[in-house]
Amino acid sequence: MDAQLKRGLLDVCVLAAIRQEDSYGYRIIKDLKPYIALSESTLYTVLKRLELAGLLTVRTSEHEGRLRKYYHITKAGLGRIEDFKDEWREVMAIYQFVSKEDPER
Amino acid sequence: MTKRNFLAALRKQLADLPNEEVEERLAFYSEMIDDRIEEGATEEAAVAGVGSVDAIAAQILAELPRTKQKKAKPTSNKRLRAWEIVLLAVGSPIWLSLAIAAFAVLLALYAVLWSLVISLWAVFVSLAAGAIGGVAAGALVAISGHPLSGIATVGAGLVCAALAILFFFGCHAATKGGVWLTKAIARGIKRCFVSKEKEK
Questions:
Q1: Which of A33, A80, B179, B188 is most enclosed, with most CB atoms within 10 A?
Q2: Among A84, A72, A97, A90, CA closest to A22
Q3: Number of other residues whose CB lies within 10 A of the CB of residue B137
Q4: Measured between CB atoms, which of A27, A40, A67 is closest to B50?
Q5: Measured between CB atoms, which of A41, A67, A68 is closest to B56?
Q6: Predicted model pTM
Q7: For residues B93 and B120, is the Cβ–Cβ distance under 8 A?
Q8: For testing contact with chain B, the best of A30, A33, A41, A67 (most B CBs within 10 A)
Q9: Residue B158 and residue B36: Cα distance in Å, rounded?
Q10: pLDDT of chain B along its 200 residues, tens only?
Q11: Measured distance CA(B118)–CA(B113) in Å, rounded
């Protein structure tokens, strides 16, 4: 997959994984496993990028006597998911156009 | 591999990163391993699940320019300045004494220049005194009945006068040169300070 495209998809996938409720690193990876392969190092980079862009916030809380970071989606983060859905409606229309022409060769 | 060994090995490989970033990444992997263990994995399996230290370090370092640049630049600048200040302070016993020594040498050279001028004038004064004294004493000696030695003394006095006149020109030129040099140095120092203020 194109690196730029994958980056965009990863961002939206991670945002979607924390949309319903705040989540933590390992759970995000597990939740996304059926859809997209995501290594710990990649997740770290994605989370950092989203945090810097103001699409999510981080809080540290204690869990079983140790610290765990929880990620919370912001309004801007929810907006990014909506933008993605709009974009992909366009992409899907193009996809249908492209694949319709294909078998008629 | 135990979690502790894993984190220690990763820390070693990330030595070039800013400390704050290393700690944040280690905490991230530590949390990942703990979550796997909590889910029922053995420590060994949990560490293996996160991936090999080499692969992780390679990926982090490959992504470095994009994630690190913005943060690292201003801090490195500040660090350099602090470093310079520390170096200046620590090195002050050396560079300060060297600077004082250099200043003292220059001052001494300047003093030597003026003492040369002064000694030239002293020679001129003594020649002039010799001329006057010689002529006056020679005249007295000639009048008092020793014309030959009197004339010789007057002659010596005249030679002194001639030398004095020559020396006067030399002294005058030397003094002029000294004054010119002093003015040039003063101008140089002034220019030094003015340009420094402009730079600031």
A1: A80
A2: A72
A3: 15
A4: A40
A5: A41
A6: 0.53
A7: no
A8: A41
A9: 115
A10: 899 999 999 999 998 888 998 999 999 999 999 999 999 999 999 999 888 999 999 888 887 765 554 444 444 555 667 778 888 888 888 888 999 999 999 999 999 999 999 999 999 999 999 999 988 988 888 888 888 888 898 999 999 999 999 989 999 999 999 899 899 888 888 888 776 555 44
A11: 9
In our burial notation (b when 16+ CB lie closer than 10 A, e otherwise), range B159-178 reads: ebbebbeebeeebeebeeeb
List chain A domain ranges. Answer: 3-104
B156: tokens are 């010596």
The CATH classification number of A3-104 equals 1.10.10.10
Tokens standing for residue A9: 């998809």
| Structural domain boundaries in chain B | 3-85, 93-199
ipTM value for the complex: 0.86
CA atoms within 13 A on the CB side of B117: 15
Q: State which amino acid sits at residue B64.
A: L
**Number of CB atoms found within 10 A of residue B42's CB:** 10
In the chain, the amino acid numbered B18 is P
DSSP 8-state code for residue A20: S
Backbone angles phi, psi at A63, to 5 degrees: -145, 120
Q: Which residue of B has its CA nearest to A52?
A: B67
